[in-house]
Amino acid sequence: MLLIDCPYCGMARPEIEFRYGGEAHIARAADPSALSDEELANFLYFRSNPKGVLAERWRHAFGCGRFFNCLRDTLSDKILAVYKAGEARPDISAERAERRE
Amino acid sequence: MSQPFRLARGGSIDRSRPLVFTFDGLDYQGYAGDTLASALIANGLHLVGRSFKYHRPRGLLSAGAEEPNALVSVERGPGRVTPNLRATQIELHDGLRAASQNRWPSLAFDLGAVNDLLSPLFGAGFYYKTFMGPNLWAWARIYEPMIRRAAGLGEPPREPDPDRYTRTFDHCDVLIIGAGPSGLAAALAASQSGARVVVCDENPALGGSLLGEGEPKIDGETVLTWLEETLAALRSAPNVRLMTRTQAFGYYAQNFVGLNERLAEADLIADPHLPRERLWQMRAREVVLATGAIERPLVFPNNDRPAVMLADSARRYCLQYGAKVGDRVVVATTHDSAYRAAFDLKKAGIGVALIVDLRPEVKGALAEAARTAGIEVVAGAGILGADGRLRVNAVRIKHRGAERKVACDALIMSGGWTPSVHLFSQSRGKLIFDEALQLFKPGVSAQRERSAGACNATFDLAGALAEGDAAGRAAATAAGFTTLEARTYAVVDALPAFGAAHVSPPAVHTDRRVKAFVDFQNDVCAKDVSLAVQEGMRSIEHIKRYTTTGMATDQGKLSNMNALGIASAQLKKPIPEVGLTTFRPPYTPVTFGAFAGPARGDLFDPIRGTPIHDWAAQNGAAFEDVGPWKRAWYFPQGREAMHEAVARECRTTRASVGLFDATTLGKIEVVGPDAATFLERMYVNAFQKLEVGRCRYGLMLSEAGFLIDDGVIARLKPDRFHVTTTTGGAPRVLAHMEDYLQTEFPDLRVWLTSTTEQWATIAVQGPKAHECVAPLVEGVDLKGDAFPHMSLREARVCGIPARLMRVSFTGELGYEINVPSHFGRAVWEAAWREVQKQDGCAYGTEAMHVMRAEKGYVIVGQETDGTVTLADLGLDGMIGKTKKDFVGKRALTRPDMLLANRKQLVGLLTDNPAIALEEGAQVTESASPPIGSSALGHVTSSYMSPAVSRPIALALVAGGRSRMGSKLHVPMPGRAVSVTVVGTVFYDKEGARLNA
Known about the structure:
The structure holds two protein chains of two kinds.
Chain A: E1 3-6, E2 11-14, E3 19-23, H1 37-45, E4 53-59, E5 67-73, E6 78-84, H2 94-100
Antiparallel strand pairs in A: 1-2, 3-4, 4-5, 5-6
Chain B: E1 14-23, E2 26-32, H1 36-42, E3 47-50, E4 57-59, E5 71-75, E6 81-86, E7 97-99, H2 114-117, H3 126-130, H4 136-150, E8 164-177, H5 181-191, E9 197-200, E10 217-218, E11 221-222, H6 223-236, E12 240-243, E13 246-252, E14 256-262, H7 265-270, E15 275-289, E16 293-295, E17 308-310, H8 311-321, E18 328-333, H9 337-347, E19 351-357, H10 364-373, E20 377-379, E21 382-387, E22 394-399, E23 402-407, E24 410-414, E25 417-419, H11 422-426, E26 431-434, E27 439-442, E28 449-451, H12 461-478, E29 491-492, E30 517-519, E31 524-525, H13 526-534, H14 540-547, H15 560-571, H16 575-578, H17 592-596, H18 613-618, E32 622-626, E33 629-634, H19 642-655, E34 658-661, E35 666-671, H20 675-682, E36 695-701, E37 707-717, E38 720-725, H21 730-744, E39 751-754, E40 759-765, H22 769-773, E41 777-778, E42 791-797, E43 800-806, E44 814-820, H23 824-837, E45 841-842, H24 845-854, H25 870-873, E46 903-910, E47 922-923, E48 937-945, E49 950-958, E50 967-972, E51 975-982
Parallel strand pairs in B: 1-7, 8-9, 8-15, 9-12, 15-28, 17-24, 18-19, 18-24, 19-20, 34-45
Antiparallel strand pairs in B: 1-2, 3-4, 5-6, 5-7, 10-11, 10-29, 13-14, 14-15, 16-25, 21-22, 22-23, 26-27, 30-31, 32-33, 34-40, 35-38, 35-39, 36-37, 37-38, 40-44, 41-42, 42-43, 43-44, 46-49, 46-51, 47-48, 48-49, 50-51
Helix pairs in contact in B: 5-6, 5-12, 8-9, 9-10, 13-14, 13-15, 19-24
């Protein structure tokens, strides 16, 4: 079971308090009616599914209830960074990437 | 009851406490401190089981968790049968009843042994080659039943397990796994820092290899004295917890370690209320792995005969348990450590006939020691095989070109040592191959752990203690504690360092007639591994699966390195290039009881009941599960069958009035200046113009445009809404709303609160509903236009503040009374008195389903499955036409959503009104559709309708609305039912009754 740092609560809590929310930074268009069918399909159905670092959404469902984002390495299952919803995806420093190895 | 193979002295057993146990129905005696295995050996028994595939007689191979052969069933009364336990890990207690497995009619005479003679048929890849044809019939009727009969060893218990199991979450600073010399040295070092230290060990006694040591001294004391003093020091330290009988079985992410603690059988017999096992979910800041090493068997013909045993295990039986494995022992080895076994056995008075060393030469000190001990050594010899069937009686060797047969009653062997890197590897640490020692050992760590002692390929006692001390200090320091200086242990060892010598690769036997076992538990021979390579397997993962080596419950603890060595020789590639298969938890099998813990029976899953639940139970309700809820399903009267009760409830409700517990509906309070805007975006409907006191039937779509929930939404105030959801959808809908509110529309000032538990909801439905509700309500005019259909009033009901709604899910005039939960029962009973005055009834969920189907009302999750749109259901008229955007709007115009042949909701009437359709049945164009053709759709709801006195059904059918009046078919086994497509409303098509 992972320990996940909730950026709102400021502490690490066990994974069972959280719910997964899929890939992060897939913004809903301000005016969805302007989307072409292809853009809409990309928005609805296509995800990056990388082998490596993935930005994804979690919700501290049984804690503060807030949605936040994290960077997780899908290969090692290690969480590299957590950040609040609406914040930009952080740069993982070289030092941090190295520690992941 | 004598113990003919018990030594007169020695061992840590308690000879003053004899214990009687039975094995295969016969009584034997052992001592307190014995394992079942050591007691069997003291009684001269080596034959303890039959092998999996060939049913070969098998004996005890080891003395620990790695035991592949001695799997026995232990019976402790009804429901207390545990199969497949390793005899080496079963503590002896008075009255223990154990039985061998996989044999019939008896252990010594087993008819299944015919497989041994037929073994040429069972080579590597046997399953893949044999069960191929001629057709599926052969698979279903012959192969699968045959494989199932042959599979498995022990018999599972038939009764429920009466024992208790429990679980605990725990945390510590330093977790030390293994209480051998390095683990204990680590514990001493870490404990002095003040860190919270937990030491766990799988065995009943702490000490690991120290328990089976004779000669060495630590700091001038015998190992057992040192051990006693060390344990006393650790026990008195308040920050240290020592856990015996506790298996660390899995190493998961972020130092999360699964521990399984067993209670001693004697304690459980004394108090059966104690938990039999406890699962610890331990989160450790730092971990020290001190898990030891496992001796490797040698691979030679008939190396599986009973009384062929690992050398150090034989030594352990002698020194720890005072049990001798034989009177005349031959030692076969490629490794120095077997000499120590030979010397210790000899010293205990056991005859050692010969040491057969497969290495070309034996170095000075060992040869010298053997000469001093009076044991003959032949170096550079080969083993031709072991003789004897139920027990080894001779070993045939080849030495300097000559064959020689040496009589013996036990053959002990050593092919070197394999560090127990299982947990390290599970932690995702990278293993490295030690060329000199021919073994894999821990390399780069992936988590906050370090290995010490034999599991780190440090085999000598002095080295293990020093490494343990260093690891304990490193762990405590890393956990943020200050540690003392390194401690030096003065070790006097009797013999040259144990484990330092060269290990030859295992002999490769390609002869198809020779059974030289690599994997004892799955009956895989050296020839099978060779054959797999010959037949084109290159990856060790493929070789593993083709031969099944390492795939038994012991997970290849003894076999992996030998299989790898043989594969490496056959592939002519070095071992690291051939690679190692993945280690997976659990290290040893864990019972289902431990994982289930208290979660069984009533505690398996939380149960939600409404405040009216007990009333329903007292009034004879049958209940159904709806998510975690128990809902009243129907209320049988007298000897009524279900269909009779449901029909009566429907008729009574439509004729006068019915009372229904709708408390389980999800409820969400949506509050804030932007509440109406928010709901407009979350639901397809328009809310801005909804008047205070009015309700709307809300439909919620996913972003992909499919219906995901529905419910009635009432406006209490301009900035306050009472939203209801489906029973099962409540948490999902709230999460969906929160998601959009937090991440897509964070600018909206809206607050969401689940109020499902706060309100009891009592539905009163039927033409007499008004007569029942009116006497209870104060301050609201219920008459006609003053309180029309789809309205809400805040009122007092029975004097209690309530939200009274006029809504209907039956098609009748209806009210829903929401009162605070703790008044739910009282208001229900008041309503019930009124309902009784009108000759009404209480109805359950089944009648609710029937009545809503009669009206063509859909149930999300029954008519829909996540691929159904509002247009499919004919509900697209509900969509707010002027709204610019709402979740799912854009997707409604995707090309696929506009196809004419989408499945649409229609009604179906069977042409023969005596036949009711089955829900889920397929709907087709023709009565006998060709095989492989697609169905037009399926039946979503089907009931006997009391209102129209015939079966009715709803179905999703391709292009359904264009098929009105046409004939379709519902193929069922043996016949196809012909149906006519009709509209979805079967009763009161004009909706007149809503305002009756």
